[in-house]
Structure formats: structure tokens, C-alpha cells
Amino acid sequence: MQQQFSDSVSIYLQISRMIETDILRGILLEEERVPSTNELAKIYTINPATAAKGINLLVEEGILYKKRGIGMFVAQGAVRQIRSKRKQEFYSVQLKGLLAEAKSLGITREELIAEIEKEGNEL
């Protein structure tokens, strides 16, 4: 979970994204406890309120839930939910950007598909 923060995105959003990534990679499993806000604050030397804001965002999305007196845990179905959310982000941001750039470069649909198929062999 160790990572440098970018100045271009709020730290609390980066915290929530890092937790999501750890869930997708299997570092944090469903029904497993996640680090507390104080633990995150200590790891990243940030304000506990900032860490709490990142965690609360995931609670609002149903990715994490609270067990009173114990801490925050990864919800059942969190992997599926995060994957679905990230696919939509990929399609709406990265894919649209890729298509716009291809168009500006005069890359045809056929050329783009051929390159995807060539590179996609690794998938």
C-alpha cells in the first residue's frame, strides 16, 4: 500500500484509489479488515481526517463497511463493484481519449483494430 502522492489529485481520492487497487490485486480480501484512519495517517504522514475522508468515500460506495468497535472491512462483492466502476472509467475517459487522438492522427479504424489485436495477444 506504500505509494507517493500526486499533486494533481486530492490525497483522500488517492487513498480511496489505493485501497481499491489493493482489493483488486487481492492484497485486501473481501471480509478482511482494512487499515484504520490512524494507521493510514501514520503510514502516509497525513492528517487522520484526510484518511477518513478517503475511507468514507468507499463506505458510501458500499466497498467498505464498518463493524462497530472493530474497524472497516472489505464488503462482499467489492471486487466486482470496483472492476465494474473502473471499466466504466476506462471506457469513458481513456478509450474516448484514445479514439480522439487516433482521429487527430488520421489513424483508421482498421489500423487501430490491427494494433489492438497485435498488442492484445498479451491479454
Structure overview:
- The longest helix has 28 residues, at 78-105.
- The protein is built from 5 helices and 2 strands, in the order αααββαα.
- A hairpin with a 3-residue loop joins strand 1 and strand 2.
- A two-stranded antiparallel sheet has the order 1-2.
- The protein is elongated and about 55 Å long.
- 60% of the residues lie in helices and 7% in strands.
- By secondary structure, it is mainly alpha-helical.
- Helix 2 (37-44) packs across helix 3 (48-60).
Query: How many helices in DSSP terms?
Result: 5
Helix percent reads 55-70%
Shape: elongated
Secondary-structure-derived class:
mainly alpha
The end-to-end distance, rounded to whole angstroms, is: 25 Å
The run of helices and strands is: HHHEEHH
- Strand fraction equals 5-15%
How many extended strands? Answer: 2
How would you state the average pLDDT, rounded? 92
Computed Rg: 18 Å
Characteristic terms for this protein:
5 helices, 2 strands, two-stranded antiparallel sheet
Quick synopsis:
The protein has helices at residues 11-24, 37-44, 48-60, 78-105, 109-119, and strands at 64-67, 71-74.
Topology:
Elements: H1 11-24, H2 37-44, H3 48-60, E1 64-67, E2 71-74, H4 78-105, H5 109-119
Antiparallel strand pairs: 1-2
Helix pairs in contact: 1-3, 2-3
